[in-house]
Write a structure and sequence with these properties.
Elements: H1 2-15, E1 20-26, E2 31-36, E3 43-48, E4 55-56, E5 64-69, E6 75-80, E7 87-92, E8 99-100, E9 116-117
Parallel strand pairs: 1-9
Antiparallel strand pairs: 1-2, 2-3, 3-4, 5-6, 6-7, 7-8
């Protein structure tokens, strides 16, 4: 089963347009979050594992990247330059309620949570 998932993810990376950075998945119905610059600047997207329902959940003029799921799959942490330097934010899984959790004058990069979150629908 894991070989099929890895093969799918590898194929997905090859087939997607722009500079896509596939990251993680969650849910019993596997969802994947990834960063892509397909709209002109890097944004965070979520989609189902079959490639359907690709949704831009950040959709702003700033550069957003490095998405990671919380262990329960309810939140996503990411890095962004929204305030002029890179900061670590947390948002709900649908992109709502982004909150700056590092909030300092120096750049903060590469948030870390977990790679896989399994939750019930």
């Amino acid at each position: 089963m894991y070989k099929h998932i890895i093969l799918f993810l590898t194929t997905l990376l090859i087939l997607t347009s722009g500079c896509d950075d596939l990251k993680l998945w969650s849910d019993k119905v596997i969802h994947i979050t990834f960063a892509s610059d397909r709209d002109g600047n890097q944004e965070i997207y979520v989609m189902k594992s079959d490639g359907s329902y690709q949704t831009n959940i950040t959709n702003n003029v700033s550069i957003d990247g490095q998405p990671k799921w919380s262990s329960d799959g309810s939140k996503i942490t990411f890095e962004t330059d929204r305030v002029g330097n890179n900061e670590i934010y947390v948002m709900n899984r649908d992109g709502s309620n982004p909150v700056n959790i590092s909030n300092n004058s120096t750049g903060d990069l590469d948030p870390s949570w977990t790679n896989i979150a399994i939750i019930s629908n």
